């Protein structure tokens, strides 16, 4: 009996002695939701902008209000601690939804920044990355009225577009492409316009610098060549019939077929439907074949253009190098980089019309 | 220091024991016993002046006076009674006894017997049963209520309780071993088991432990439960206690041992396991998929009840990372006005709930209901409005309280109420890691527990896959062909599956 | 030999439980970081190294079953093979090795906790609680330790499921082409991998606690196979999720993988994962601790409790001599090297000595 008593006293003593870990009580911290970084070329410093939502005391208070803090420093952690001088509560960046890079910064290079983000165990790896047109600071200080807070708005914008218009690119995916051999990363570019925030383009990186951009009209062809996807729309100018029709793709599958060391075919099969057919009735197999061929040819052409651009710039966002690495035993990085511009890459895109429509023409 | 204290206490105990023995020896004959008893005002002495004067001694408060007047007095007035045996033979009582053993006489008089002897022969004493029955009638169960199935519960009388069990197990092999414990209360304990099914080891252990009990009062079976359980320091009950005769009968058939205690409406059965405490007997009245679903719900409810407030403390104090974005706003908003850290908030609310529960349990039923309403609605709403606790926590604590009531055995419900608090403290110390450490202590504790020497966590560990048939899931009766292994029954087979299966086949 | 030290029947467990005991000791801290270690040596073909290690350790298990007779343990074997003094020294060294592993396993996991959860954790108090827990387990007897290990297996299996995230976001191409690494590197990969298979040597200590020990061989081999499978599964998940350049930069790939797992009710699974995996760590530490205590208990006749408590105190004071991550890293490397020599050097050596001695005895008879 007395032993249990002694143990009890020991336990109570220990409990009273240990409560000394720094607490991060959820409502007593400055919860940063989104970070934006810009490059101050004249001072060679990063400008960090942090947005944290101001929560009301009950559900009725609307949560559109944000606090924004800006600070300049040479390292990320120092930006955080500098931000602390402006924030009332301890700054915590563990819950950030995304990181935006300013245009100047992506031209300057984001390597240091990226690696230091990777080093912080607080930050998740599923966070979204994007490039902010002009500066991240101005975008994050946008006073647009959104349904949720601005960081949540941007997160949802990136998340939903990554399902339909552009491939998904979170911190992990970016790291994968940035550090891996035979591939190059890309990021969506968002822009603050008069009416709101838009995803306008896709920026391609060479090493850690942006080198190329494609606009909305090339999203479709890039995405179908890049990955299997579901549910996206392509507008097709059928010059032969002088009509612009829209196809909605139900799903597409892509595969890389190597034909010798210098020739690869990107085999894409799209299955879709004609949703805005502009009175273009399809009543026979012949007509179906005709429209399928027309669309396929157009996509092949667009795909070829895009690939040529990539080859000229010596970037490989389609991960053709990685595919070669899995195909050929003696693959090595430097040899590949030399040969990449000369490799014959054929986009073999085929469109199949499968679904009918609710309207009979 | 402590050691010395313990030694002194032990010596004292030994001395006291010796004294008690001496006291018993003080009473040398019947008249001395009467002298002691006479000091009580309700003790009566009647004598009939005949050839041989007959003397009656009894406690007025213990016997049925009607019986005395109608059945005994007319016979006593007969003239030619020469010896006590003659008197016995003419009396219309069936449980009479002639003895000169003072211990027995004392015991019987205290149990509502009338002692009779003839004037000239004080050595032979006739004991006539005339017990005044004050027990209540057998009533439906209140704690382990079931919607379907038999509605009988034990009462305070040991004979009625044994009768209730015997009515269900009609087998001569159902043995009852009576023991008497409690120096002052002299409580009768009956150990029941089915000979040929129950493991003799278990029976022996129970009888041994009960007869070893050294205590002055045994008021209820829970006294026995605490005294004979393997680890009395544990908050976990290691013997099942139930008020349902059907549960006890079923346990006996499974090869367990039942302990019936006079004056207690609860019967203990053992050995038992942890999972059994989450099985309601009603599970056997429902079809097996439904019963299984309810059992699983109950187990989740218990885990929820124990873990939800510690997790609240851990997450809100240290791990804001793991709160999903959509929930974050709700949580922060609801806590914005609260002046306390989560730990205090949780402790305040948990203690409030405990207060309500205690108040509800102590007060008369009708007032208790009012307290429930006052507590639940008024205090809860007021606490939130006043900004002492958050809405979210109020919901969680209420749910946790509700979940802890789903356990069919009241006793384990209390345990669950209690073990939540160490978890909360661990959560405050080290967040989620702390909760894990708490869980590890709990698992180790459960592993160390035994019930009558059988592992308490069986069938999980040691893993006995066959016993899982009636643990988290309840398989249909035709798959329950074997008795549980942890009771180590002498006869492991309930039924002969070879014979049952063809019979079922014919029905289709 | 003192008969009291032999296990009583209530502490013995069925041979079937070897499946859980062995698996629980093998899966420890290693599973969080071994992918990085092996891929450093053998690249993306290092999953073959895992298979080879599994085979090699299976052989070691087989040898153990040949060496250890029923109801005898390492101490008896040492006595029989090397005589009283040398045998005792060997047993004591083995005991110390067990304690060292127990201490370093706990300490290195605390490092993870410090990095991911509480940078300002007070290690000494934390250790006091952990050693109270371990003592509570170990003093309950072998059965309690095993029971805990048994439950920990379910936790690790549960956690292994969450590597599914890799399969939905990964690139199978990463594994191709198979056998692109030189064979010699794949064989070299066995060495870092063996750390993940350590735990087999403990059978030498708890053998007499297993009912019908000789029949347990198939369960032990099955456990080893299960471990191999878990490592293989884990490696493939990690390899298709990360490319090799990325993998080399990540200390604990599994924890980083858990970071992307989101549920509607829990985001950032790594916090839950680290907390749950702690159970596996404590289980394997408790087993090593128990084995060390048992070794010394058998050697010295001092009561089990006293040895356990004094080693627990040494364990708590490890906070004074294992002070930073470099020490942890170095000690881990040394211990894993010792482990490799133990498995692939010492046990075969024991076997050969045993063969010679039994041969001599037979001839004499």
UniProtKB/TrEMBL annotation, chain A:
It is found in: Membrane. Gene3D superfamilies: Nutrient germinant receptor protein C, domain 3. It is a lipid-anchor. Keywords: Germination, Lipoprotein, Membrane, Palmitate, Signal. The keyword Lipoprotein applies. GO terms for biological process: spore germination. Residues 203-356 form the Spore germination GerAC-like C-terminal domain. InterPro entries: GerAC_N, Spore_GerAC-like, Spore_GerAC-like_C, Spore_GerAC_C_sf. GO terms for cellular component: membrane. Pfam families: Spore_GerAC, Spore_GerAC_N. Residues 24-191 form the Spore germination protein N-terminal domain. Belongs to the GerABKC lipoprotein family. PANTHER family: SPORE GERMINATION PROTEIN B3. This is Germination protein, Ger(X)C family.
TrEMBL record, chain B:
It is found in: Cell membrane; Membrane. It is a multi-pass membrane protein. Residues 483-508 are annotated as: Disordered. One of its GO terms (biological process) is spore germination. Pfam families: GerA (PF03323). The chain crosses the membrane at residues 296-318, 368-386, 392-411, 423-447. Its main location: membrane. Keywords: Membrane, Transmembrane, Transmembrane helix. The keyword Transmembrane applies. Residues 496-508 have a biased composition (Basic residues). One of its GO terms (cellular component) is plasma membrane. The keyword Transmembrane helix applies. Belongs to the GerABKA family. This is GerA spore germination protein. It comes from Gracilibacillus kekensis. The lineage of its organism: Bacteria, Bacillati, Bacillota, Bacilli, Bacillales.
UniProtKB/TrEMBL annotation, chain C:
It is found in: Membrane. The chain crosses the membrane at residues 12-34, 46-68, 89-110, 122-139, 146-166, 186-207, 219-244, 271-291, 307-328, 340-360. Pfam families: Spore_permease (PF03845). One of its GO terms (cellular component) is membrane. It is a multi-pass membrane protein. Keywords: Germination, Membrane, Transmembrane, Transmembrane helix, Transport. GO terms for biological process: spore germination. InterPro entries: Spore_GerAB (IPR004761). Belongs to the amino acid-polyamine-organocation (APC) superfamily. Spore germination protein (SGP) (TC 2.A.3.9) family. PANTHER family: SPORE GERMINATION PROTEIN A2 (PTHR34975:SF2). This is Spore germination protein (Amino acid permease). It comes from Gracilibacillus kekensis.
